[in-house]
Amino acid sequence: AKEAIELYIEELQARGEAIPDDSNTLEYSLTLETV
Fold first, then answer.
1. What pLDDT digit, counting tens, does each position of 1-35 carry?
2. Whole-angstrom Cα distance, residue 30 to residue 25?
3. Which of helix, strand or coil describes residue 27?
4. What is the distance between the alpha carbons of residues 13 and 7, in angstroms, rounded to a whole number?
5. What is the DSSP annotation of 1-35?
6. What local confidence, expressed as pLDDT, does residue 11 receive?
7. For residues 3 and 11, what is the distance between their CA atoms, to the nearest angstrom?
8. What pLDDT is stored for residue 14 in this prediction?
9. pTM assigned to the model
10. What is the dihedral of CA 2, 29, 22, 7, to 10 degrees?
């Protein structure tokens, strides 16, 4: 999978497109308990 991501980024750079940036992405974990 890492090679595929690297290839994707290289293709974006070759076309002069912006590389997606996930710095504004919120990640969280939610744990639910049922009673």
1. 889 989 998 999 999 998 877 777 888 888 999 98
2. 16
3. coil
4. 10
5. -HHHHHHHHHHHHHHTPPPP--TT-----------
6. 92
7. 12
8. 94
9. 0.49
10. 10
